[in-house]
Amino acid sequence: MQISPNLYRIGRVLLASLFVISGVMKIAAFSGTVGYMTSLGVPLATFAVLATILVEVGGGLAIMAGWNTRPIAIVVALFTVAATLTAHRFWAADPANAQNQLINFLKNISIIGALLMLAAVDTDSKKQG
């Protein structure tokens, strides 16, 4: 498989930026995020938010930098699966919110796919020189 290193780096940074920005926003609105997670029925919501911030900011920055991309992309993908099944249950949403939840569910499925593709390509920045 032939890849373009520059396009790979740009795509990696763009994909990871979603997680970094989302994590920083959770830091800025920590108590509101804990309240939201509690409303979703997430057990130990405060701990869950801290873990979410770690995965989003830490994992996002690592992916941006190309550091241990393969394992971190898999961790972030698994996190995204859990977040998607927890927060975007379109099948259980009221009719007014069902379409929005479906759109977010499908967006996350696409992001999971991109993370899996990232994990499939062993191209960390340290190997690219």
Describe what you observe in this structure.
By secondary structure, the chain is mainly α. The protein has one domain (5-128). Helix content is 81%, strand content 0%. It has six helices and no strands. It has helices at 5-28, 30-39, 45-65, 69-87, 95-120, 125-128. The longest helix has 26 residues, at 95-120.
Mind describing the biggest β-sheet? none
Approximate strand percentage: under 5%
Kindly provide the radius of gyration, computed on alpha-carbon positions and rounded to a whole number of angstroms. Answer: 16 Å
Order of helix and strand elements from N to C terminus: HHHHHH
The helix content, as a percent range, equals: over 70%
DSSP strand tally: 0
Mean pLDDT over the residues: 93
Number of domains: 1
How far from one another are the termini?
19 Å
The helix/strand class is mainly alpha
Overall geometry comes to globular
Given as residue ranges, the uncertain stretches (5+ residues, pLDDT < 50) are none
Compute the number of helices.
6
Summarize the structure.
With 129 residues, the protein is an all-alpha fold. The protein is built from six helices and no strands.
